[in-house]
Amino acid sequence: MKKLPLSKYLQVFRYAATNYLSHECIYPFYASFKVTHICSLQCSFCNVWKEKTPDLKKEEVLKVIDNIANSSIIVLSLEGGDPLMRKDLGEILEYAHQKPFYLFFTTNGHLLEKRPMKEYGKHIDYLHISIDEGHDNLTFFDRLEEFQSYGPEICIQIVVTKDTLTALEEKIKRVHEVNARAVVMPACHLDGTDDFYPDPQKFREELLRLKTQYINTITTPKGFLDNINKSHGCSTSSVIIDSDGGLFYPCRTIGKHLYNFTGGSFMEFLRTPEAHEARVLMNKCNRRCGWYQYFATDVFASPRSLYSSLSPYLLK
């Protein structure tokens, strides 16, 4: 993992303090950027591949990255669809790697052997590979050592449905064997999909058991497991950017495109009355969708939850 400038850490601390003092999560710290909706799969619990939003050209993608670099965001995850579908991905990764944030990269893995992953890996801090029944790639658990050879730290992203919770331990055991990491999340019920969301209390109990049994393997923080069992547990400390640069705000579940990262300052948008009204709307939402990004980001406000998430990396 690369080192960021001290000024970036101090900047993030100031924004976190502002959020705390204002009793409102004005400034986010994590962003996922869907650089394409195109995917080689059509997972039943996902609706991203169904959307027709156009992808930005490379020059516009770089503008989005510049805007993110000049914001409170300290972690950027490039996602899709599957970002490996982009032919200009190498240039995008190289550009993003130079910016003052940690770069995550998420893929379903089906194109890994067809892309120059060792070259891409030079510009990625954490490589997240989704492996589960929904992504139809359980055999990839036999290739974890190969994935580790790409260079960056790998984290296996496991989506759990109501029917696959009992099969989770076998996956975690395999990840533990190769001293890798796993982020485990429930299949939240998205618009236009069937409901695969597991019982949140059973999900919490199983994750806590596995975190105890397989030490320093699961990065899913306890705070997330607590939040999905509350009447309201989500936060705008995380944002999702669409493939056209549009921002789903306050979230992708109930939000609309209120801003586009290709033009104007993101930080100025966050201070507008429109952005404030969207955050108020989020605080009144009772859907309890369990979307990992929005329910897990309390780690930036709670030292205990932050340690729960980072300790698998720090104590490896």
Descriptive overview:
This protein is globular. With 316 residues, it is an alpha/beta fold. Helices cover 35% and strands 15% of the residues. It has twelve helices and nine strands. It has one domain: Aldolase class I (TIM Barrel, Alpha-Beta Barrel), CATH 3.20.20.70. The two termini are 14 Å apart. It has a nine-stranded mixed beta sheet with strand order 6-5-4-3-2-1-7-8-9. α5 links the parallel β4 and β5. α2 packs parallel to α3.
CATH class: Alpha Beta
Question: At the fourth CATH level, what is the homologous superfamily?
Answer: Aldolase class I
Q: State the secondary-structure class.
A: alpha/beta
Sheet with most strands: 9 strands, mixed
Catalogue the unreliable spans: none
Shape: globular
Strand percentage: 15-25%
Q: On the 0-100 scale, what is the average pLDDT?
A: 90
How many domains make up the coordinates? Answer: 1
Known CATH architecture = Alpha-Beta Barrel
Tell me the span between the first and last alpha carbons: 14 Å
Strand tally: 9
CATH topology: TIM Barrel
Fraction of residues in H or I helices? 25-40%
Write a short abstract of this structure:
By secondary structure, the protein is α/β, with parallel strands linked by helices.
Give the helices and strands, then pairings.
Blueprint: H1 6-22, E1 30-34, H2 58-69, E2 75-79, H3 89-97, E3 102-107, H4 117-120, E4 126-130, H5 144-148, E5 153-160, H6 168-177, E6 181-186, H7 200-213, H8 222-227, E7 238-241, E8 246-249, E9 256-260, H9 266-270, H10 273-283, H11 292-296, H12 303-314
Parallel strand pairs: 1-2, 1-7, 2-3, 3-4, 4-5, 5-6
Antiparallel strand pairs: 7-8, 8-9
